[in-house]
Automatic annotation (TrEMBL):
Pathway: Glycan metabolism; N-glycan metabolism. One of its GO terms (biological process) is N-glycan processing. Residues 102-311 form the Glycoside hydrolase family 31 N-terminal domain. Belongs to the glycosyl hydrolase 31 family. Residues 374-701 form the Glycoside hydrolase family 31 TIM barrel domain. The keyword Coiled coil does not apply. This is Glucosidase II subunit alpha. GO terms for cellular component: endoplasmic reticulum.
């Protein structure tokens, strides 16, 4: 009977996946008791006030007591200036809680570092706090009603509790039933609603979900009772809000603060075949929201890992405006400024207010807190081939060989859950894969890699070593009664590793070591899936909130952190597996703030349709500004069977996103490129080769992301912050500040793709050069770009220099010693700059100074190269094969190479001109040398 039940549950799960998402499996705000209680849709007068006499000043922070006017319950406000300038850290917690409320751990890269924080002035109504670094960053704390105004250079940019929606349900004892006599004189227990209403911060003490809650057949015992909190943030200078991934929605957040419309939800869930254009919760949660206008960008990072809903009060209530492919927005300056109201089930108010003032400033301030994505091995940013599942060793070998046969580059083969022995992770099915180490070695000998899936659910099987070890050592998540929690997932009956336990994390990480998991190699990548966590028979397909983790943590407090904690363990295991030498590669589905330090992210179980292709850009843009730059979507769609047109256009789009992987469901048709008609295969081949040609550019961007924290994939507003028409555009984007990418995303665009060229602050537009034809676009606004089957509209910005490699090989690892080409795209002043990063492409030696970081500059007819980091060095035999210069006003007659310190000419170079393009052929200079090329006119 147990086995039949398991099969039935798994089959039902698969049937639901095929039939698309069942909305009834997931809560609405009205069905979530704390959201229902704490949600406010209209501004009101806050019931919280500051007690001015409680002010205490310390060198790096100030504290104050907040009181709820009606209940008189007291809270502590702590406000500190974050070191480096431009940010405040604000915390609110109960002054004397019945028990310690949870504060998020492990999301930040380190404990916040504070700078001098001083009270500048105080009165009976206002307390002004200034950061002592002379940067014009201040906070004004209004006493009653309580609110905090945050200023950047005298400009009000964020207000906390400006709408008066702050709520904070303090911990309390559950009311005892009160006895009353019935008509027969017998006593009957009743709830003492009046007593609880006097204690509660919010009136509806009779809310049936306050002390325990049911959803469908699942019961939540809520041992601590109601403990929700909410706080609103207004962005007075902004016209658009964006952020709070992960949602399959527009980049610019829609207005949700309307009755009948749900807020955006942050609650990591396994949602297969997710719907588009709504705020339903998906696989990850990053609680950071940005507000942007022509003069200011600011952000709020709400550090809370419990279920959270975010209402958006938008300046533009027309939700269709930001969803159109090409749409210029007319912002209404007379509406109220946009705002976001965060509503969380538990924890404390732990908020970072990031004051910019520009978009890139705010992005840096966020990644300074949560960390930058580390530089991956080069192969990880090349092309990946995956499906659920490649059947056996012969299948893997055949697919790899077919890529060579059809001259299509590919770096990594992937294996889904069927490679294991009965869904037991850290094992192999030796019938299908009798020689896994040899199979891995064969791929490695070709320059390729293998990535395998390992999920957090562990099969409950007394014959399975890892289950027995987790049971014996007490490493599983517990249920509310203290026993090992049991749910259902791919293996059937399963328990879940408690990654909040240091012992569990260490033991799990140990499984990746070669002495434990022998049938692998140190080059194998790891795919952490189903880590929301997914529980097929759990509430909302996840874990019970009253489950218990190490240290007595309730799952409700840490739910959105669970997958993140698995990543920490996986990263530790892979790092030690390679003896600290090799950079690990991990892909994750579940994620939280800071997950970028450990893994790449993909957008989950999408579908083979044009809407999901469009959504891949919107979702990755939102993740990128939230620190997670290494993002991509399943090329072709996970569910369904794309036709050749959609499939080829998706490859063209994926080739210009940071993570580039084709993946498909087990029930889909096989879709390797050569299985499509020849014309489709050739378009796919061309798209993948475009990716490999640009790998030096991609690799440099990833390195610069680790240095600066800036996104790799960027919305137009990042570099054109004053162009209001660009604020909501999410059908095209920038890579760094060099390329403008506008893939074909719709059947209607097969002959012409409308592209928006943005306007700078000076009212002019940049020059943009078509990367295929070098045709120069000098105007601003929408322009129709002709396209054919092969065309991907990509434009290089004038003033930049782009490094490429023109010799495309079967895998990126075989291109290491190949020469470089530089494309110099001149701006209106005839100048350009660019960078190139070079290292061994796989180890951490670059952190010991073994790398080259070069800057190229063209001005006054001279192209020169210099080291940015002069103390760093890396021995490389790579050389400069050609220089392509576009945008010259006149044609040079000769070019001379200079390579020695004396400035003497080394030799004359060959020039070639085709139209407006000048090519300098075979300078032959080593990339590690200083050199310059002078054009003679």
């Amino acid at each position: 009977m147990v086995w039949k039940k398991m099969v039935l549950i798994v089959l039902c799960h698969l049937l639901v996946m095929v039939a698309s998402v069942d909305r009834n499996n997931f809560k609405t705000c009205e069905q979530s008791s704390f959201c229902r209680r704490l949600r406010s849709l209209e501004p009101q007068t806050s019931e919280f006030e500051v007690l001015p006499q409680s002010l205490q000043q310390f060198k790096q922070y100030v504290t104050l007591t907040l009181a709820h006017q009606r209940t008189k319950h007291e809270y502590v406000l702590k406000l500190a200036c974050v070191k480096g300038g431009g940010s405040f850290h604000m915390q609110v917690d109960e002054k004397q809680p019945l028990s310690v409320r949870y504060r998020v751990q492990d999301a930040l890269v380190q404990e916040p570092q504070y700078g001098p924080t001083k009270v500048e002035s105080t009165s009976g109504t206002l307390i002004m706090v200034a950061c002592g670094e002379g940067n014009g960053v201040k906070a004004g704390i209004q006493v009653a009603p309580f609110k905090v105004d945050f200023f950047q250079q005298g400009k009000l940019v964020v207000t906390a509790n400006g709408k008066g929606m702050m709520r904070f349900e303090h911990l309390r004892h559950k009311p005892e039933p009160k006895a009353e006599q019935n008509a027969e004189g017998q006593e009957e227990p009743v709830q003492n609603d009046g007593e609880q209403a006097e204690q509660a911060d919010e009136p509806p003490a009779d809310d049936p979900g306050a002390w325990e809650e049911n959803f469908k057949s699942h019961h939540d015992s809520k041992p601590k009772g109601p403990q929700g909190l909410a706080l609103d943030f207004t962005f007075p200078q902004a016209k658009v809000l964006f952020g709070i991934p992960e949602h399959a929605d527009t980049f610019a957040l829609r207005h949700t603060a309307t009755k009948g419309t749900d807020p955006y939800r942050l609650y990591n869930l396994d949602v297969f075949e997710y719907e588009l254009n709504n705020g339903m919760a998906l696989y990850g949660s990053v609680p950071v929201v940005y507000g942007h206008g022509e003069t200011s960008t600011s952000a709020v990072f709400w550090l809370n890992a419990a279920e959270t809903w975010v209402d958006v009060f938008s300046t533009n209530r027309d939700t269709d405006v930001v969803s159109s492919l090409v749409n210029l927005v007319s912002w209404n300056s007379h509406t109220e400024p946009p705002a976001a109201n965060f509503i969380s089930e538990s924890g404390i108010m732990d908020v970072f207010v990031l004051l910019g003032p520009g978009p890139t400033d705010a992005f840096r301030q966020y990644t300074d807190l949560t960390g930058k994505g580390p530089l991956p091995q080069l192969y990880a940013i090349a092309y990946h081939q995956c499906r659920w599942n490649y059947n056996d060793e012969r299948d893997v070998e055949m697919v790899s060989a077919k890529f060579d046969e059809h001259d299509i580059p590919m770096d990594t083969m992937w294996l889904d859950i069927e490679y294991t022995d009965g869904k037991r992770y850290f094992t192999w099915d030796h019938h299908k894969f009798p020689h896994p180490v040899e199979m891995i070695r064969n791929l490695t000998d070709l320059g390729r890699h293998l990535t395998i899936i390992i999920d957090p659910h562990i099969k409950r099987d007394s014959g399975y070593f890892f289950h027995n070890e987790c049971t014996d050592r007490g490493l599983y998540v517990k249920n509310k009664d203290g026993g090992d929690y049991e749910g259902w997932c791919w293996p059937g009956a399963a328990s879940y590793v408690d990654f909040f336990s240091p012992d569990a994390r260490r033991h799990y990480a140990d499984q990746y070591l070669l002495e434990n998991f022998r049938e692998q190699s140190e080059t194998v990548g790891i795919w952490n899936d189903m880590n929301e966590p997914s529980v097929f028979n759990g509430p909302e397909v996840t874990m019970l909130k009253d489950n218990v983790h190490h240290g007595g943590l309730e799952h409700r407090d840490v739910h959105n952190l669970y997958g993140h904690m698995q990543l920490i363990a996986t990263f530790d295991g892979l790092l030690r597996r390679g003896n600290g030498r090799l950079r690990p590669f991990i892909l994750t589905r579940s994620h939280f703030a800071g997950s970028q330090r450990y893994a790449a992210v993909w957008t989950g179980d999408n579908m083979a349709d044009w809407g999901h292709l469009q959504a891949s850009i919107k979702m990755c843009l939102s993740l990128s500004v939230a620190g997670i730059s290494f993002c991509g979507a399943d090329v072709g769609g996970f569910f369904g069977n794309p036709d050749g047109e959609l499939f080829s256009r998706w490859y063209q789009t994926g080739a210009f996103q940071p993570f580039f992987r084709s993946h498909a469901h087990i029930d889909t048709k096989r879709r390797e490129p050569w299985l499509f008609p020849e014309d489709v295969k050739l378009v796919i081949r061309d798209a993948i080769r475009k990716r490999y040609r640009l790998l030096p550019f991609w690799y440099t961007m990833f390195y610069e992301h680790e240095r600066s924290g800036l996104p790799i994939m960027r919305p137009l507003l990042a570099h054109y912050p004053t162009d209001a028409n660009a604020f909501a555009i999410d059908h095209q984007y920038m890579l760094g500040d060099q390329l403008l990418v506008a893939p074909v995303l719709d059947l209607k665009q097969q002959r012409s793709r409308e592209v928006y060229f943005p306007t700078r602050a000076d009212g002019q537009g940049d020059w943009w050069y078509d990367c295929d034809t070098y045709h120069k676009h000098t105007g601003t606004g929408v322009e129709a770009i002709p396209v054919d089957n092969y065309k991907v509209p990509v434009f290089q910005r004038g003033g930049t220099i782009l490094p490429t490699k023109e010799r495309i090989r079967r895998a990126s690892t075989l291109m290491k010693h190949d020469p470089y080409t530089l494309t110099v795209a001149l701006d209106r002043e005839g100048r350009a700059k660019g960078t190139l990063y070079i290292d061994d492409e796989l180890s951490y030696e670059y952190r010991r100074g073994h790398y080259l970081y070069l800057e190229f500059e063209f001005r006054d007819g001279v192209l020169s190269s210099r080291k940015i980091d002069t103390t760093a060095t890396y021995q490389t035999d790579t050389w400069l094969e050609r220089v392509v210069i576009v945008g010259l006003g006149k044609v040079p007659t000769a070019a001379t190479l200079y390579t020695d310190a004396s400035g003497a000419a080394t030799r004359r170079l060959e020039l070639e001109r085709v139209g407006d393009v000048v090519t300098v052929r075979k300078p032959g200079v080593l990339m590690l040398d200083a050199w310059s090329i002078k054009l003679d006119f």
